[in-house]
């Protein structure tokens, strides 16, 4: 169900054998597959508890992105292992938004060069790879060595963080923008804007449907931000967790 009447008064967290748990009054939260909802870090538990506590008269599940990501990590409904998750993420390079360019109209082609080229250049330098771009419908020819480099890099993340990375990639339709966001090279607002560059260009020319565009934009920002936060809070580095809590 997308919504349900709120059935609890208080939300709290507690530490159990498997990690941190969420308590709704005296009931422990469970996943859709009835597993105990247990997360690996206290910071993530606090963030999830905040989602549940912020619900009003009804629980709007579609607004609870961190809870959804935790459920996916715990239940693993597609039954994929770490290698499969990594390969799925890297496969997005073949259809990466920022690698597909237009030749017409010239104004859009120039906008893509000005806005996307710097991010591609950053990724090439950051990971010491060749990526490039193409106006062909087939897209750019990504070298096998580039894919393997990203496979190796993503292997440094744990399974929970990888679920978050893939989630961000599917929102932005771009591995490059997602890694720029997770590496704190670009902001959520910038990453979302770059992922919607052609749409934003068309809106500037022709206008937009007043409420629909704004809703889509806010929703995409919320999802991208939640996914990025999830990755950071699931990181194995306690230093990262501590820094995020301080910030």
TrEMBL record:
Any one biological process term the GO annotation gives: mitochondrial proton-transporting ATP synthase complex assembly
Keywords tagged on the record: Chaperone, Membrane, Mitochondrion, Mitochondrion inner membrane, Transit peptide
Pfam annotation, one family: ATP12
SUPFAM superfamilies in alphabetical order: ATP12-like (SSF160909)
One GO CC term on file: mitochondrial inner membrane
Keyword Transit peptide: yes
Compartments reported by the entry: Mitochondrion inner membrane
Keyword Mitochondrion carried by entry: yes
Entry membrane topology: Peripheral membrane protein
Superkingdom field: Eukaryota
Function: Plays a role in the assembly of the F1 component of the mitochondrial ATP synthase (ATPase).
Family affiliation: Belongs to the ATP12 family.
Quaternary structure, from the entry: Interacts with ATP5F1B; involved in the assembly of the F1 component of the mitochondrial ATP synthase (ATPase). Interacts with FMC1.
Name of this protein: ATP synthase mitochondrial F1 complex assembly factor 2
Organism: Mesitornis unicolor
Taxonomic placement: Eukaryota, Metazoa, Chordata, Craniata, Vertebrata
């Amino acid at each position: 169900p997308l919504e349900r009447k709120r059935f609890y008064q208080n939300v709290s967290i507690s530490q159990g054998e498997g990690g941190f748990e969420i308590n709704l009054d005296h009931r422990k939260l469970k996943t859709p597959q009835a597993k105990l909802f247990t997360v690996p870090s206290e910071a993530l538990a606090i963030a999830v508890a905040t989602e549940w506590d912020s619900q009003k008269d009804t629980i709007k599940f579609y607004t609870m992105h961190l809870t959804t990501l935790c459920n996916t990590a715990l239940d693993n409904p597609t039954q994929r292992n770490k290698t499969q998750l990594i390969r799925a993420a890297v496969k997005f390079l073949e259809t990466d938004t920022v690698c597909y360019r237009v030749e017409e109209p010239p104004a859009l082609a120039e906008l893509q060069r000005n806005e996307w080229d710097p991010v591609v250049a950053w990724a090439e330098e950051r990971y010491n790879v060749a990526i490039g771009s193409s106006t062909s419908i087939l897209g750019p020819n990504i070298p096998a060595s580039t894919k393997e480099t990203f496979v190796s890099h993503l292997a440094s993340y744990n399974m929970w963080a990888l679920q978050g990375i893939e989630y961000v990639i599917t929102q932005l339709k771009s591995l490059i923008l997602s890694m720029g966001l997770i590496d704190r090279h670009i902001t959520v607002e910038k990453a979302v804007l770059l992922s919607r560059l052609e749409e934003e260009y068309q809106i500037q020319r022709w206008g937009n449907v007043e409420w629909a565009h704004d809703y889509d934009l806010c929703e995409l920002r919320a999802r991208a931000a939640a996914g990025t936060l999830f990755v950071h809070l699931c990181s194995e580095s306690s230093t990262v967790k501590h820094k995020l809590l301080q910030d």
